[in-house]
Design a protein that fits this description.
Helix content: 10-25%
Strand content: 25-35%
Structural class: alpha+beta
CATH topology of the largest domain: TIM Barrel
Shape: globular
Number of domains: 4
CATH class of the largest domain: Alpha Beta
CATH architecture of the largest domain: Alpha-Beta Barrel
Length: 818
């Protein structure tokens, strides 16, 4: 490809053409393509206050017409930002013409190099039943070119929004970030849930950001906002979230402090391994698989099908329609018109009761360790039926929803007793976990006195009951409304629990699938700072988008649960997402760091791959980068090594592509251009892993750099996040001058180890592999000469050696290299 750079001014720049990429990953439908890349040195402009715009022309062969790349791709010109080395200390450098009523104070930041400001806006008190709304201008963010916001897509779900200046999101936002022309980031956070205040950011049509505050209290109140400026979005967003914890913890409502202390005391008795067991087990949910017309027989049939296919799920969630319900007096029939009547399951679908169902499940399917049931925060979608057993045994109150309809709820004095009794009943029935849905029903309460009375009371009662009875084995769903995010999900006085990170998996809406991954990856830029485990929802492995969703769940670092219809399973995908431990339990391989988008300001409509970064392991761990095509045509991109989380300047890495198994030679950030070429087709994805390399001089080598043996432990091959199976790895020179590679695994499978110069070695002459200090069968070890990877089938060796189950779930594999 003959390419002029810029606008016909090639002579100003030095151009260098490099022959091939270290690693090229192409779509399955095309033969392998090797591309050449070009490097251009641009002089730094004298004025760095404005971004440098650029584009380029190209032609495919000599004699063809020159074409502008931006016109062919349908994209705008590129922008280069030259970042200022210092962050201004005055808020006036970042916000212009803000309201004079604001109380702004510079505060210390827990994130190094970040300027942080507390902003307090006075707001009016409630008059009668109606909440009081106050709008206060924060002014116009200065010198910015792009913005990103975490917004309220609906009352119950968060969603990202992007744009270029001026700020013009059509939805209320709880966090906004502005990319400035000097390369700095300004982040604003609206802190809700303190003293019954809800805050959202909205534009005013003139470039200003307005804080719209909803006060539920009688008398004046304060709206709390925090602003941060830093050289990176991650630093600024972390700083505002840290400060938000301080503001929430400083709420002077004494009853709130007492409840926080109670949560902490209960949480002290919860063992960490209990939570990992709940997080890491493969889960089956009945929702999409079995539908709303749920019966115990359908559940038994579905579980028998899983067993037949050797899909050993650990957790079961019995979703909607198991409860005893009755139609409310609305005259129509739907979920919202049904009220909860009794703790016991409905007799039509569960004629022998919930306890019989749970007991039978545990007898027939001993691999299932946890059984959970679905319920709404207020009981059901239509809350409580006024004539049911629950209404007769607990004090109730009729309240108004936002649309003016009536709803019967358990009243504040009896909420804790009701939850305590209900969860006792579930435990006695053999149920030890819950999925608590429709939590946004609390935000749909209309009148200010009722909002004050119920929103925090229900959340506190639910959390304490879940801690006390289930050790927080609970999933919070439809709960991303602002008061709940800060009141319940931000405090760190309890173990983190699962929270649905965005809207449902919709199997029949084709346009929803790429959108689902994009939204979850960006929502996590905010939710990763909460004391929760983001849950990207269930999905179906047999679905045409199944592997796409599976890759998203694996990189998310959250739970994985499937909702396959009986007889419809993608076994290959399930094996890529899970592994068996030595006890035969199926576990998911969760990275230790929650996955999130690494391109904060890239909008959904831009023709770019979505890049989701994660990391697993300790100091010498593995950077993970999942790439999703969220567009409608194949895309090609260059991925630089510095885009992998956790990569260090002084270290070397090998990069492996999951779908092809290809492995790059060792590269480092000090190389001229350590890049991977990636082409991904429509509805396609890839997961790249960057493994740290260690170098050794073996006996007989010259000691020169090119003659050193380089080693990287890759984890379990064939798994999307196989590096997460490695608990510990250590490579040392043994006393007899042999190289010893010791790897502790939490699951069985094929262990891969990159070793340079492997093509000249043989298993017989150069390797000894031990499992529990016993040599493994030689046929379980093979050399992949194309990728320089030693492949050890630990799972087959474990079974053939019949060495039995050990004390724990960890197996140590030792490899000696001559």
């Amino acid at each position: 490809m003959d390419t002029p750079i810029g606008n016909g001014v090639n002579s100003l720049y030095e151009r260098r053409r490099h022959p091939i990429f270290q690693l090229a990953v192409t779509t399955k439908s095309r033969p392998k393509v090797y591309r050449r890349y070009f490097v251009v040195d641009l002089p730094k402009p004298s004025n760095i206050e404005h971004p440098v715009h650029f584009t380029f022309k190209y032609r495919t062969t000599i004699g063809h017409n020159w074409r502008w790349a931006s016109e062919v791709a349908g994209s705008s010109d590129g922008e280069l930002f030259f970042q200022t080395p210092t962050v201004p200390t005055k808020i006036g450098a970042f916000l212009n013409d803000y309201d004079s009523s604001l109380k702004i104070q510079s505060v210390a930041s827990e994130s190094p190099g970040v300027q942080l400001w507390s902003i307090v806006a006075p707001i009016k008190g409630v008059q009668g039943k109606h909440s009081e709304f106050t709008r206060t201008s924060l002014g116009t963010p200065s010198r910015y070119t792009r913005w990103f916001a975490i917004t309220r897509e609906s009352r119950m779900w968060l969603s990202p929004d992007h744009g270029q200046a001026p700020y013009a999101s059509t939805r209320g936002a709880i966090m906004c970030s502005f990319l400035r022309t000097d390369g700095l980031h300004l982040v604003l956070l609206a802190i809700s849930g303190v003293k019954d205040v809800l805050i959202e950011f909205k534009p005013d049509g003139h470039g200003n950001v307005v804080a719209e505050s909803r006060n539920e209290r009688e008398g004046s109140n304060d709206a709390h906002i925090v602003a941060a400026a830093a050289t990176t979005f991650d630093s600024a967003s972390a700083a505002v979230m840290y400060h938000a914890r301080t503001v929430v913890a400083g709420d002077d409502f004494q009853d709130r402090k007492d409840k926080l202390e109670m949560e902490r005391r209960i949480a002290d008795d919860i063992q960490p391994q209990w939570m990992e067991n709940w997080y890491d087990g493969l889960t089956y949910c009945t929702w999409n698989a079995l539908g709303q017309d749920l019966t115990e027989d359908k559940i038994f049939t579905a579980l028998a099908d899983l067993k037949k296919n050797e899909i050993n799920v650990t957790n079961l969630i019995i979703d909607d329609n198991w409860q005893s319900l009755k139609e409310n007096e609305s005259g129509s029939y739907g979920q919202a018109d049904l009220g909860w009547t009794d703790f016991e399951a409905n007799p039509k679908g569960f004629p022998k009761g919930l306890k019989y169902t749970a007991t039978t499940i545990r007898q027939l399917f001993p691999n299932i360790e946890h059984i959970g049931v679905w319920h709404a925060i207020l009981g059901y979608w239509g809350a409580v039926h006024p004539d049911g057993w629950i209404a007769r045994n607990y004090k109730t109150k009729t309240i108004k929803k936002w649309d003016g309809t009536d709803m019967t709820v358990v009243d504040e004095p009896d909420i804790s007793r009701m939850y305590d009794d209900f969860y006792k009943f579930l435990l006695e029935s053999g149920v030890d976990s819950v999925k608590t849905d429709d939590q946004v029903g609390l935000d749909e309460i209309r009148d200010a006195p009722d909002r004050r009375r119920f929103i925090t009371a229900y959340q506190d009662a639910w959390v304490i009951a879940a801690l006390r009875h289930f050790s927080i084995k609970a999933i919070s769903c439809m709960s991303q409304f602002p008061q709940n995010l800060f009141h319940t999900q931000l405090p760190t006085n309890k173990p983190r629990f699962m929270v649905r990170n965005n809207d449902d998996f919709f199997p029949d809406i084709d346009a929803s699938h790429a959108h689902h991954i994009f939204v979850n990856a960006h929502n996590t830029l905010f939710t990763s700072h909460l004391n929760i485990l983001p849950d990207w929802d269930m999905f179906q492995t047999h679905h045409q988008w199944g592997t796409y969703h599976g890759a998203g769940r694996c990189i998310s670092g959250g739970p994985i649960y499937i909702t396959d219809e009986p007889g419809k399973h993608n076994m290959d995908l399930i094996h890529q997402m899970t592994a068996q431990d030595t006890h035969g339990k199926t576990i998911v391989l969760r990275p230790s760091v929650i996955g999130k988008s690494i391109d904060v300001y890239t909008a959904r409509h831009e023709e770019r791959l979505l890049r989701v970064g994660s990391f697993t392991g300790g100091k010498n761990g593995t950077g993970l980068l999942a790439l999703f095509n969220v567009n409608k045509r194949a895309l090609s991109e260059l991925v630089h090594l510095d885009r992998f989380p956790g990569v260090e300047q002084s270290e070397e890495y090998v990069i492996r592509a999951h779908t092809t198994g290809e492995v790059s030679p060792p590269v480092s950030l000090t190389d001229k251009l350590p890049v991977v070429s990636v082409e991904i087709e429509y509805a396609g994805w890839e997961i790249l892993s960057a493994y740290q390399v260690r170098s050794f001089t073996l006996a007989g080598s010259t000691g020169a750099q090119h003659d050193r043996t380089k080693v990287a432990v890759l984890g379990l091959l064939g798994k999307m996040t196989g590096a997460a199976a490695v608990l510990k790895k250590e490579t040392t020179m043994h006393q007899d001058s042999r190289l010893k590679i010791s790897t502790s695994l939490r699951a069985l499978g094929v262990l891969g180890i990159y070793i340079s110069g492997l093509a000249e070695k043989t298993v017989e002459d150069n390797f000894m592999v031990l499992l529990r200090e016993i040599p493994v069968p030689q046929h379980t070890v093979r050399i992949n000469r194309e990728t320089s990877v030693l492949e050890i089938d630990v799972e087959t060796a474990f079974k053939e050696m019949k060495i039995g189950v050990g004390y724990g779930n960890v197996e140590v594999v030792e490899v000696f290299v001559r």
